[in-house]
Amino acid sequence: MGKSSKRLPPRDRKKQTADASAMTGFLKYALVAGLAVMAAFSFQLFTEDAEVRALKRSVAPLQSPKVTELDYFQEGYKDEMLWGTYRPGMYLGIRARVPKSIIAGLMWLGISKQMYRTRHECEDSDEMSGYGWLRHDGVRFGRQELLDEGYLITTSFMKDPEDRGAFGEWAVRVTYDRNKDYIDIRGEQSHFNQGSFLFYIMDETEAPLEISPDFSSHDRPFASGKHAQLGRWEFRTRQNTNGEVHFHGARAKPEDDLTKIVRDNVGKQVISQNKMILDDVIEPGSNMAVFQVTGTVPLEVDFFFTSPGGGGTETEAASIPGKKRLTKRLQKAEAAFDERFEETFRLRENGASEGDIEVAKHALSNMLGGMGYFYGRSRIAISDALKERLKVPYYKYWPAALFTATPSRSFFPRGFLWDEGFHQLLIGRWDRRLTLDVMAHWLDLMNKDGWIPREQILGSEARRRVPDQFVLQHTTNANPPTLFMPLREIAMRIAAASSDAAADVSDDERALLAAEKAFLVRSYPRLKVWFNWFNTTQVGKLPGSYYWHGRDATTDRELNPKTLTSGLDDYPRASHPSDDERHVDLRCWMALAAESMALIGRILGEPADVYEETAEHLSDFSLLNQLHLDEKSGNYYDFGNHTEKVELVPSPVTDPSTGHMYGRQFVRVTHGKPRPRFVPHYGYNSLFPLLMRLIPPDSPILETQIDKLTDQHFLWTPFGLRSLARSSSMYMKHNTEHDAPYWRGPVWINLNYLALAALRHYGDAPGPYRERAREVHAELRRNLVGNIVDQYYKSGYIWEQYKDSDEGDGTGSHPFTGWSALVVLMMADQA
Ligand SMILES: *[C@@H]1O[C@H](CO)[C@@H](O)[C@H](O)[C@H]1NC(C)=O
Ligand SMILES: *[C@@H]1O[C@H](CO)[C@@H](O)[C@H](O)[C@H]1NC(C)=O
């Protein structure tokens, strides 16, 4: 994604001074003296120039205490969060939150297009009828169903850090059965009765395991070992059915394709014995142990991972829960989830149907079950000239951990900065600790300049899934600072609690508020640098204007040069990118950021005048209107060098040497002359002044904006607000021959969530349009929830987008339970 920007940021003197002034006098003196010596030294001996120095600076972490190192995240919390289903890109993948972990995962042999396939990583091409967590609390418990043709696989995960004596670190139950509801293409019920699944455990540090394939009793672990950070550990299997068991021990590196290792091993027996089984061989020095059960369904196996010398109490093999006891514990955990869910969202109390409630539980569970832990180094793009000079294809960020939610387990099982602020709006309602933890990880990824890589492809497991051309991150690229949304919620909660001193809060709540405050204290220096990065690198020419820098002004392949940095990718902007541009969405994000900074500053008693002033400036309604309101249409627009008269036309490609035509490509042809003007594409971008609540509640402009929302000629559909008006010249247009419309029509849930939240705000604020805002809120909410639920029952998934026409079908990647899971807050009427 993202066109490589050819230039590196110029060295920013201002920021360096800011860094320096934070140091003590002595350090400053030492630094200045040191720099002088070094400067003289390097002047003579090195030819290292400003470009290289800027590059090195861009891969250096910001010098500010790490947020993840706050006391709150140590000891008890760290221990509680150690293990989890933190490999969301796998159908079931478990790991600990250490850089190189013991990892575990499920595989099975499925059929696609009449061929056996090894299922392991979530892939759309597996064409599963549905899969995902039906329950997941983000920490201790989850139950998932995987529907593969005629089979139904259920996986339950459970841990109980307070009862390690009985449970060890974690337990997993896998049940492999016929899917009784399955009807095949001939209209027949599933007739399958044979099945097979595999479960592996592997040490990423490559320390060899002890593997003992004696399955007669679970007293003996199947595999055991000693891990540098996790200590001594044992892994047991217990079959609750009568399948045939096979095994394999392999030597594997973390960057190896584990699916292939297993597939190749099974493949050997297919050839020699016509059986899809492992070879029962343990290679010398194996660090991966694979267990397989095969036979007549149902098949059920419990897996236990214990760590006798590890974090908790000694776990006696003998005390491992029996089948019935584990069943009971799982049922109890599920009941606890259900109770907590109702307590948190009150759907039943508010009259939601059981069907709706079930979808909401799945949505939340998949958001939580989609959380992952990643460790590695981002790859940073460098200019062609530097590649040549430094003889490297890219630069590397420092090695770092990221604990984060993910947009989609199949398509985007990694961290995205723009998505994360939305994710935390939901996660923060369920478990505020997780939100602090995730944001701490993201903020610690900030470099010295105040930049955070927007797509986090950390470690070989994540990298294997991303095509090379999309791996590199560009240090000049921005992305919406959505983390300010959850940050503002935290700040507002603290402000409310302190002004409401008489309120009687529980000890837990008090501790949590204290943790949140400590989090803000630790984060504030980072947030300042982050804000400053946006406020200096993304400014426009006129005061109070901003634009997403880095659009490609030279391409003739795109109908409208994309703006990936904005998160709205192909949403149409000025036809001819230039530094005269003013982007209304970015200006509004900046208003949110400045207002949040001012609020946080006030709470912390920090000098925040400059944020107050900036916030005031950016929320100045007449200035906003001057820069972005098109009086004629009454719409908020970008401004830029623009013409509507562009089209993509097929043109022949000829071989320059022979003059022969050998193909065809689409190029953009401009018929009109671009001129500086408002960019007349009404859509999500135009809504930002409303979404960020910058329109005064008593302004007639508010009424115009709300009326416009409900007009079907523009954005209103029975399925939510579409991204671009039907009246726009770019509505549902391809951007290149191969780039289908993305933010040019379909309904997206994150922006619809913001629209609902804004309507709720205006419905609560006294003013002449209050009733109107309430009505529209109710109707929009009904449409969104109704369609997401319908589509879920129709397709088995929650989707990345929904069609703005026909039946409102889900489109794009699926399951997509990142921001689309905000449907939970819509149902709970918390939006
Ligand atoms: C943001 O930048 C503007 C100039 O473009 C400046 O006036 C303002 O003080 C800056 N705000 C902050 C908080 O640094
Ligand atoms: C607008 O774009 C055209 C075509 O690139 C260019 O010739 C013209 O100078 C631009 N106008 C302005 C004001 O930037």
Give an overview of the whole structure.
36% of the residues lie in helices and 20% in strands. The strands form 10 sheets. Strands 1, 2, 3, 4, 9, 13, 14 and 15 form an 8-stranded mixed sheet that branches. An 8-stranded antiparallel sheet has the order 5-6-7-8-16-12-11-10. The protein is α+β, with helices and mostly antiparallel strands and 831 residues long. The protein has a domain at 89-345: Beta-galactosidase, Chain A, domain 5. It contains 23 helices and 32 strands. α14 (484-499) packs across α15 (507-537) and α19 (684-691) packs parallel to α21 (749-764). β1 and β2 form a beta hairpin. Residues 1-28 have low confidence and may be disordered. The structure holds 2-acetamido-2-deoxy-beta-D-glucopyranose (2 copies). One 2-acetamido-2-deoxy-beta-D-glucopyranose (NAG) binds next to α15 and α17.
User: What is the name of the CATH topology of the domain at 89-345?
Assistant: Beta-galactosidase, Chain A, domain 5
Strand content: 15-25%
Bound chemical compounds: 2-acetamido-2-deoxy-beta-D-glucopyranose
- Please tally the β strands and state the result: 32
* Class by alpha and beta content: alpha+beta
Distance between the termini: 31 Å
The CATH class of the domain at 89-345, by name, is: Mainly Beta
Low-pLDDT runs of 5+ residues are: 1-28
What is the C-alpha radius of gyration, as a whole number of Å? Answer: 28 Å
| Percentage of residues assigned to helices | 25-40%
Report the major sheet: 8 strands, mixed
Query: If classified by CATH, what would the architecture of the domain at 89-345 be?
Result: Distorted Sandwich
Q: Give the name of the CATH superfamily of the domain at 89-345.
A: Glycosyl hydrolase family 63, N-terminal domain
Keywords: Endoplasmic reticulum, Glycosidase, Hydrolase, Membrane, Transmembrane, Transmembrane helix
Membrane topology: Single-pass type II membrane protein
EC number: 3.2.1.106
InterPro entries: 6-hairpin_glycosidase_sf, 6hp_glycosidase-like_sf, Glyco_hydro_63_C, Glyco_hydro_63N, Glyco_hydro_63N_sf, Glycoside_hydrolase_63
